Amino acid sequence: MNVAPGTIQVWSDLLCPFAQVAIHRLRTTRAELGLDGAVRLDHHTFALELFNGPHSRPGTDSEAVGLGQLAPEIGFRLWTQPDWTYPSTVLLAAEAVHAAKAQGLQASEDLDAALRRGFWFESRPIGHRQTILEIATDVASVDATELAAALDDGRARSAVMGDHAIAVTDAVQGSPHLFLPDGTGIHNPGIEVRWEGPWASGYPIAQSNDPEWPKRLLHAAAATRS
Predict the structure, then answer these.
(1) Separation of alpha carbons 65 and 173, rounded Å
(2) Cβ–Cβ < 8 Å for 38, 6
(3) Strand order in 40-45's β-sheet?
(4) What is the pLDDT of residues 34-80, one digit of tens each?
(5) Ranges for the DSBA-like thioredoxin domain (predicted)?
(6) What is each CA distance from 191 to 78, 111, 161, in whole angstroms?
(7) Burial class, 33, CB count within 10 angstroms (exposed 0-12 / middle 13-18 / buried 19+)
(8) Cα angle 41-11-115, degrees, rounded to a multiple of 5
(9) Which of 1, 69, 76, 123 is the most exposed place for a label (fewest CB within 10 A)?
């Protein structure tokens, strides 16, 4: 992976609970370390739906419940709106995160965080164009009008599919997978789980949980700045 100095490249799916834990811990720890201006997150798409089909609410819920016990600080909330509003696809939302990069990595990162907040904490249907743009309007670093134009002409769609072309190789192991400028790659950092029962009807049980990993990665990324 070609990762710019002072950057952590994040490959993930917006509806992946493991990614939510990793990104929350990265952003929270970065602020605590005073590195907000020193390390940026460069978001890429590991589209689980392109591997598995439409997003499964039972699978997502079971993972969130298990990880909610492991990382209660995340504040996971199960979906509270009608089932028919649950986003079976978030490809357009992923496209929006890529499109926001034209406005800068900060805009892309802030939109990604806002979309995740919308889904995980507010049960908003982030697969829908209107919801994406409503969320973007409240993100100070994002020009929602320009983002709407980008979604309507599909200029970032190829970026999502370009990521998928990489995701199907051995280069990326899953969501989340983080890469540093020195070439280091870490899949699902800090957490190891086993499954009790079948996926989507069972639940994950933590075998290890290392909350200190963000400090190591953030310091390593910050050290690569020229």
Answers:
(1) 23
(2) yes
(3) 40-45, 7-12, 177-179, 185-187
(4) 999 999 999 999 999 999 999 988 878 878 877 777 777 888 888 99
(5) 7-183
(6) 21, 25, 28
(7) middle
(8) 70
(9) 69
CB 98 within 8 A of CB 160: yes
Summarize pLDDT for 70-89 with one digit per residue, the tens.
777 888 888 999 999 999 99
Residue type for position 120:
W
CA proximity to 103, closest of 141, 153, 57: 141
Q: Tokens 């005073």 belong to which residue?
A: 34
Q: Average model confidence (pLDDT) for the chain? A: 92
Amino acid at the residue 75? G
- Angle, alpha carbons 145-48-173 (nearest 5°): 115
Q: CA 114, 118, 122: angle at the middle one, nearest 5? A: 145
Going by C-alpha positions, the residue among 15, 84, 85 that lies closest to residue 47 is 15
What amino acid occupies position 119? F
With contact defined as beta carbons under 8 Å apart, do 96 and 114 qualify? Answer: no
Lowest mean pLDDT among 70-79, 90-99, 129-138, 156-165: 70-79
Residues 6+ apart with CB under 8 A from 223: none
**Owner of token pair 């029962």:** 197
In Å, the largest CA–CA distance within the chain is: 50
